[in-house]
Amino acid sequence: MSDQPHGNLTIRTLAMPADSNPSGDIFGGWVLSQMDIAGGICSRDRVGGRTVTVSLDRMSFIQPVKIGDVLCVYTEVVGIGNTSIEIHVEAWAQGDRSHTKIKVTEAKFKFVALDDSGRPTPVSK
Ligand SMILES: CC(C)(COP(=O)(O)OP(=O)(O)OC[C@H]1O[C@@H](n2cnc3c(N)ncnc32)[C@H](O)[C@@H]1OP(=O)(O)O)[C@@H](O)C(=O)NCCC(=O)NCCS
């Protein structure tokens, strides 16, 4: 397992109590949501317009995220289709008393570029 993040730091955000269950463990869905947002920013920047998430590959959570951790999400464009763009997304957690980051999960997201009418539109290579 790599001990360094891949890609560009796209989001840094604080895991808050509202993002956790009553035991203080952060919901996986919250992490996934941050990754989707980061991928959306990356795809929008690359495409220069509107994009939507169409799919993501399998995901497993390697490490927990705790309240007070800073979640760092990294993105990297790994494929360009006709109207779609594939982005590798990694989520890393940084504890409140440490600068060390630990990888939480990763996934490959696919976004589709849309025109103003909401129809798929070509992505420049
Ligand atoms: C994304 C969407 C516009 C694609 O519509 P569509 O009629 O399937 O369009 P197309 O068949 O032309 O496919 C467009 C691209 O999406 C890809 N695609 C479509 N369905 C896919 C799927 N289930 N999995 C992976 N890729 C898919 C196609 O491969 C194609 O990529 P390419 O042009 O690079 O080859 C449509 O499925 C949609 O609106 N989905 C909802 C998206 C959304 O709202 N996401 C947020 C959910 S809350």
Protein architecture, described:
It is a single chain. This protein has 125 residues and is an alpha+beta fold. The protein has a single domain (8-113), classed as Thiol Ester Dehydrase, Chain A (Roll), CATH 3.10.129. 16% of the residues lie in helices and 38% in strands. It has one helix spanning 28-47; strands spanning 8-14, 51-56, 70-80, 84-94, 101-113. It is elongated and about 45 Å long. The model has no long low-confidence stretch (mean pLDDT 95). It binds coenzyme A. Coenzyme A binds at residues 52-55, 81-84, 110, 112, 120.
Summary, kept brief:
The protein is α+β, with helices and mostly antiparallel strands.
CATH class: Alpha Beta
Tell me the Rg in angstroms. Answer: 15 Å
Second CATH tier, the architecture: Roll
Strand content: 35-45%
Q: Please, what is the CATH homologous superfamily?
A: Hotdog Thioesterase
Average of pLDDT = 95
Number of strands: 5
Number of folding domains? 1
- Inertia-based shape: elongated
Biggest sheet, spatial arrangement of strands: 1-3-4-5-2
Structural class: alpha+beta
| End-to-end Cα distance | 31 Å
Low-confidence stretches: none
Q: Which series of helices and strands comes N to C?
A: EHEEEE
Measured as a percent range, the helix fraction is: 10-25%
